[in-house]
Write a structure and sequence with these properties.
By secondary structure, the chain is an all-alpha fold. It has 22 helices and no strands. The protein has one domain.
């Protein structure tokens, strides 16, 4: 049954049918072919169940925060400030790309929003200062992936919801790995540009007075992060309520910047609605699919299949890592999570791994999928913003950062405390 299910699903995706429709069609096929009763009659209940879940209200709110920061001009000022502090290193502005993506990720929760924002600001600078266009674009695509690892991450919310893991604990667990991965990205740029200086373009130096003067531009993002994360960990608000607080603060910041207008609000709401509708359609279809798969016994069959292979827990873990890397080539990241987590989460618990730690490991693997062809979403976002050259150039530029992500996976396996230290200190 598992092989049949996989072939059907990959076939639907290969026909370029939208992901939400593919999942729904797949669920109906599984129902007709393998269920002993007409499970599709439960569709209404499944839609209502997921559509009324309180924790998922945070998704459109976090997306709206990113839209407001983009349209208010705050993100541009953050990039300018980090440019003055980081452009003296080999690789110059590419370090500012990673730094800006890191800060923006800590407020938006969206990889696509992060890549689009940093790309819009940074890409015009590459030809101006003589950077290698491929590596420069690749650094933006890779930096954008941090949006789903650093809190508040939409993907961590989805994982917590599906795997029944504490979302505040997941947020805390993502901080050190997110910062470590940003450091690995910068180290990758540094090494490549030391080995081949022509990649790094023009290095620029700013006086300490200029640097200190521009630090004020970082305050809005830090204040916003403080409101969001502080309200969660002081117990004042749930993640959903914290998202509402963050949205209010972002609106006030846009007003303070003098960029708040009805037109800007409408544009931000439109962008939020488009992204939210896509996510929720996928989640509704996937929730129905997961119900069907569990009812026909596919989850149990998968567990039995892995058990009969007589692999050790670590061998099974590496098998799952390989499966995720391969599937990430072909399946959109959020869909990949929603399809697999209900199947994999029970297996991970059975093998004795911490589901909190595995959630962070999974997100790093999902990040790889964002910058690997043929469906790496960040590659298309950066190329769309770039408007020159070919997609292949962005793909080539992203390859070194894929290697950095795999190094992060190995570090998490060797040192689980990278993800578990902060949750344990906070009592999570």
């Amino acid at each position: 049954m598992f092989a049949t299910a996989l072939v059907v699903l990959l076939g639907l995706l290969a026909l370029t049918i939208p992901v939400a429709a593919s999942l729904f069609i797949f669920a109906v096929v599984m129902d007709w072919g393998f269920a002993a009763a007409p499970l599709s009659r439960a569709l209404g209940h499944q839609i209502w169940d997921i559509s009324t879940n309180f924790i998922l209200v945070s998704i459109p709110l976090f997306i709206l925060i990113g839209e407001l920061l983009l349209r208010s001009g705050i993100a541009t000022k953050v990039y300018d400030a980090l440019d003055s502090w980081l452009s003296w290193m080999p690789g110059g502005l590419m370090h500012a790309n990673i730094g800006t993506a890191t800060m923006f990720s800590a407020t938006s929760g969206s990889s696509v929003a992060t890549a689009a924002t940093v790309g819009t600001i940074a890409l015009p600078q590459a030809p101006r200062f003589g950077y290698d266009d491929r590596l420069f674009a690749g650094s933006i695509a890779a930096g954008g992936t941090l949006g789903i690892l650093l809190p508040p991450s939409i993907n961590l919310i989805v994982y917590g919801f599906l795997a029944q893991v504490s979302i505040p604990s997941l947020f805390m667990a993502g901080i050190l790995p997110g910062l470590a991965l940003a450091g690995l990205f910068m180290l990758t740029i540094l090494v490549l540009c030391v080995m081949k200086p022509a990649l790094g373009g023009q290095r620029r130096h700013s006086t300490m007075a200029v640097r200190m003067g521009k630090l004020v531009h970082l305050l809005p993002v830090l204040v916003l992060l403080g409101f969001i994360m502080g309200s969660i960990y002081t117990g004042w608000a749930t993640p959903t309520e914290a998202a509402a607080i963050g949205t209010t603060v972002a609106l006030l910041m846009a007003w303070w910047e003098g960029t708040l207008s009805w037109k800007m609000i409408c544009e931000a709401l439109e962008g939020t609605m488009r992204t939210t509708c896509m996510i929720m359609l996928i989640m509704i279809s996937a929730n129905f699919l997961n119900f069907i798969l569990a009812s026909v016994g596919l989850t149990e069959q998968l567990l039995q299949a892995v058990t009969t292979m007589n692999l050790s827990p670590m061998q099974t873990l590496f098998l799952l890592i390989g499966i995720y890397i391969v599937l990430g080539f072909f399946i959109e990241t959020l869909s990949l999570m929603i399809i697999t987590i209900p199947l994999v989460a029970p297996l991970i618990t059975q093998l004795g791994f911490d589901p909190l730690w595995f959630g962070i490991l999974l997100i790093v693997l999902i990040e790889m999928a964002l910058i690997t062809p043929p469906v790496g979403l960040n590659l298309f976002v950066v190329q769309g913003v770039r408007g020159r050259g070919s997609l292949n150039e962005v793909i080539v530029g992203a390859i070194p950062f894929v290697i950095s992500m795999f190094a992060m996976v190995l570090l998490l396996i060797a040192f689980p405390s990278i993800a578990l230290l902060l949750p344990s200190l906070s009592g999570g």
